[in-house]
Amino acid sequence: MNARASRPAPHTTLRPMRESDVDAVYSIEVRAYPFPWTAGIFRDCLRADYPCWVLIEESCLIGYFLMSLAADEAHVLNICIAPEAQGHGHGRRLLRSAVQLARARGAQRVFLEVRPTNKAAIALYDSEGFNEIGRRPRYYPATNGREDALVMAIELLPPE
């Protein structure tokens, strides 16, 4: 028997981000992205009272999402799983939690941007019902200039 298969999956919990989480969040950000957000941006999002949540696995912060809500729309600003924790469904859990939170707060649609080169993220968003609705030219910094962003959205239909 494979010892790895016999171990139970680690327990994860989702909770609101706190100011004391910013250093751990920033540590993940710089390992996950070639052009990371600054720690100050995360602090600004907390101060602006944006919904900011962290995913904890065995007392270690392994992921986060931040979004803005205005009127009947939500915008996922950042969603990330630590590189060493990717590939285990944590990103899907965060995305579903963000959509659920948006729905609970009255949003009728959720938007996000993604690099066209981030095939794994695009596949996740597509599998969760997001559709490409446009492009933002030269949106992201890139090694050789700028990279476009794909704009994706999902309509949050009322429960049947």
TrEMBL record:
It is an enzyme of class 2 (transferase). Coiled coil: none annotated. InterPro entries: AcTrfase_RimI/Ard1, Acyl_CoA_acyltransferase, GNAT_dom, RimI, YpeA/RimI_acetyltransf. Keywords: Acyltransferase, Cytoplasm, Transferase. Acetyl-CoA binds at residue 118. Its EC number is 2.3.1.266. Acetylates the N-terminal alanine of ribosomal protein bS18. Belongs to the acetyltransferase family. RimI subfamily. NCBIfam families: rimI. This is [Ribosomal protein bS18]-alanine N-acetyltransferase. The gene is rimI.
